[in-house]
């Protein structure tokens, strides 16, 4: 009942819209009175002319909208519908009110009656939302039915051209559908009569619920004679007429859940027999050949099965299933769009994280470069100081050798101390060698760090390439979405693997930094060791000083005997060591 009321409302909506001359969405009360009177007359409902004024007595602002008229329509007209009126007469009345305003059938290849039938088919297949439109899936379903009824082959190319002419619009109004059929886009090469017969066949099938029709022989119940009748099968009945003009009905075979249809053997000179068993009587029927017999038995069994399952007519069930399928597809498309937006947001978040990571790495690299520059400068300063110290030590050694040549007599006394001093110099050279090795290790660590940075940059470029591929993949067509999802997952895995490899490179870089710090510590230990040996050399330098010729001042007495220098020389030496110590600090 709800579906029938929806179809009634669609026809009434067309009539209401036709009365809206100014296209403001409102109709005057006087016009609505006439429309309500006509509706009540056609639907065989007592009309109350005062009811409209009483219902809208509080609304004197002028014309009424469709939403304002709907409560009155439901309460005073539709709620009183009994179902014993002629639905075709009702549709014809609504069609008469609206078709002249919206379309001119003179330039079309179809008659007014055929246009009315296409209009009824539109109301049956259109979406249950206003303003009424029919989507492309239902248009294709109708046109396929029409070409099949005309005995032609369905052309996908013609339908594709039709869709292109709509400028990417995915729906049509009733008048656009009538013009599409009436201009003969899908009936080229056929005469007008074939097109009219095709429209009539689809109209009978979809609107009048004619599931099958044709001539068959029926056996009488009284005289037991066989008479040819025109049979029309509908979801709940099998009617038979004198001929196919349907003017004189001879009777109805009411189908219900208790009915059944069975094949019969040939008898009484009749072939291809079957029987329809109902609760009160049975009907024996003969057809011309076995194929038609099987088709009629199958069609009648389908109707009985539908009644047992409590389902609507096959075409209404098919329309409902198509609508539910479109709803599911719309929900799936919305879910897919939402998932794509979430993936896009996650991708953008990951991109921001990578950008932040890149900035941090650049800052760390700049900081490391600055630290490296400072370390190199410190190393150069230390090398200069070590070079000056070595030069001074060489000069001291030369002076010592001269003193040894001049004071050969004292050489034996201090020979042991000189050997100790040379041993100290050898150890100092070993310390310097250790320092050079530490510098070499530091240079190797710096090269390793540079290679890790290059590899890290290569991985970052790979990540950017993967991101670009993902962005290109997101712009592909809807038909490739499923494949894109699989590729996107694979690229996500590649991205995760690349991120893991980037983390591994960072760990290796941290290990290289730790090795670099270890080498720096070794270098500092070598420098401290060198400084220790220099202090020892300075400590023992006075022990090898030989007696120089010149003025003889009173000698100092040490733990080892007479000293090799005077008090004045001792003061001068102390002053020089203090200056040297202050420069080192």
From TrEMBL:
Please name the Pfam families in this protein's record.
Answer: EF-hand_SWAP70_N, PH
Domain PH, which positions? 209-305
Q: What Gene3D superfamilies does the record point to?
A: Pleckstrin-homology domain (PH domain)/Phosphotyrosine-binding domain (PTB) (2.30.29.30)
> Which GO molecular function annotation, any one, does this entry have?
DNA binding
Q: Which UniProt keywords apply?
A: Cell membrane, Cell projection, Coiled coil, Cytoplasm, DNA-binding, Membrane, Nucleus, Phosphoprotein
- Please give the superkingdom of this protein's source: Eukaryota
Report the SMART domains cross-referenced here.
PH (SM00233)
InterPro entries linked to this entry: EF-hand-dom_pair, EF-hand_SWAP70_N, PH-like_dom_sf, PH_domain, PH_SWAP70
Q: Which residues form a coiled coil?
A: 326-536
Q: Where in the cell is it found?
A: Cell membrane; Cell projection, Lamellipodium; Cytoplasm; Nucleus
Q: GO cellular component terms? A: cytoplasm; lamellipodium; nucleus; plasma membrane
Q: What does this protein do?
A: Phosphatidylinositol 3,4,5-trisphosphate-dependent guanine nucleotide exchange factor (GEF) which, independently of RAS, transduces signals from tyrosine kinase receptors to RAC. It also mediates signaling of membrane ruffling. Regulates the actin cytoskeleton as an effector or adapter protein in response to agonist stimulated phosphatidylinositol (3,4)-bisphosphate production and cell protrusion.
Q: Which PANTHER family match?
A: SWAP-70 RECOMBINASE, SWITCH-ASSOCIATED PROTEIN 70
The record describes its quaternary structure and partners as:
The SWAP complex consists of NPM1, NCL, PARP1 and SWAP70.
Name of the protein in its database record: Switch-associated protein 70
Organism name: Astatotilapia calliptera
């Amino acid at each position: 009942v709800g579906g029938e009321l929806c179809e009634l409302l669609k026809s009434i909506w067309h009539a209401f819209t036709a009365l809206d001359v100014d296209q403001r969405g409102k109709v005057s009360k006087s016009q609505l009175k006439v429309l309500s009177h006509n509706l009540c007359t056609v639907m065989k409902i007592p009309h109350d002319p005062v009811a409209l004024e009483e219902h809208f007595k509080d609304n004197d602002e002028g014309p009424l909208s469709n939403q304002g008229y709907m409560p009155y329509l439901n309460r005073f007209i539709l709620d009183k519908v009994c179902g014993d009126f002629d639905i075709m007469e009702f549709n014809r009345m609504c069609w008469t009110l609206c078709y002249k305003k919206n379309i001119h059938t003179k330039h079309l290849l179809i008659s007014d009656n055929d246009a009315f039938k296409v209009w009824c088919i539109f109301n049956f297949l259109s979406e249950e939302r206003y303003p009424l439109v029919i989507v492309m899936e239902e248009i294709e379903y109708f046109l396929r039915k029409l070409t099949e009824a005309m005995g032609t082959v369905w052309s996908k190319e013609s339908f594709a051209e039709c869709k292109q002419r709509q400028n990417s619009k995915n729906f049509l109004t009733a008048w656009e559908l009538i013009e599409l059929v009436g201009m003969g886009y899908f009936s080229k090469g056929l005469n007008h009569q074939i097109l009219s017969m095709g429209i009539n066949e689809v109209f009978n099938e979809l609107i009048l619920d004619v599931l099958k029709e044709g001539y068959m022989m029926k056996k009488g119940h009284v005289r037991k004679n066989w008479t040819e009748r025109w049979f029309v099968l509908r979801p709940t009945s099998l009617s038979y007429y004198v001929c196919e003009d349907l003017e004189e009905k001879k009777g109805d075979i009411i189908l219900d859940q208790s009915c059944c249809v069975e094949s019969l053997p040939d008898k009484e000179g009749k072939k291809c027999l079957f029987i329809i068993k109902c609760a009160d009587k049975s009907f024996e029927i003969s057809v011309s050949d076995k194929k038609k017999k099987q088709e009629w038995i199958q069609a009648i069994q389908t109707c009985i099965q539908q009644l047992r399952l409590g389902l609507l007519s096959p075409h209404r069930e098919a329309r409902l299933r198509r609508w539910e399928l479109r709803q599911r597809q719309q929900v799936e498309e919305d879910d897919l769009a939402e998932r794509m937006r979430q993936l896009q947001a996650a991708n953008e978040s990951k991109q921001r994280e990578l950008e932040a990571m890149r900035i941090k790495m650049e800052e760390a690299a700049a900081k490391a470069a600055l630290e490296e520059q400072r370390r190199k400068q410190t190393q150069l300063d230390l090398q200069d100081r070590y070079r000056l110290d070595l030069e001074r030590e060489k000069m001291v050694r030369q002076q010592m050798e001269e003193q040894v040549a001049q004071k050969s007599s004292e050489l034996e006394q201090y020979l042991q101390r000189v050997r100790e001093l040379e041993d100290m110099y050898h150890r100092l050279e070993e310390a310097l060698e250790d320092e050079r090795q530490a510098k070499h290790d530091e240079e190797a660590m710096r090269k390793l760090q540079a290679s890790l940075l290059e590899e890290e940059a290569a991985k970052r470029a790979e990540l950017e390439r993967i991101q670009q591929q993902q962005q290109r993949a997101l712009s592909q067509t809807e038909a490739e979405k499923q494949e894109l999802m699989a590729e996107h997952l694979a690229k996500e895995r590649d991205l995760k693997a690349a991120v893991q490899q980037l983390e591994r490179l960072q760990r290796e870089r941290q290990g290289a930094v730790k090795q670099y710090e270890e080498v720096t510590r070794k270098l500092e230990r070598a420098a401290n060791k060198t400084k220790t040996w220099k202090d020892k050399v300075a400590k023992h330098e006075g022990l090898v000083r030989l007696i120089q010729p010149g003025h003889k001042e009173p000698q100092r007495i040490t733990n080892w005997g007479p000293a090799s220098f005077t008090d004045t020389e001792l003061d001068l030496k102390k002053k020089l060591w203090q200056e040297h110590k202050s420069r080192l600090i």
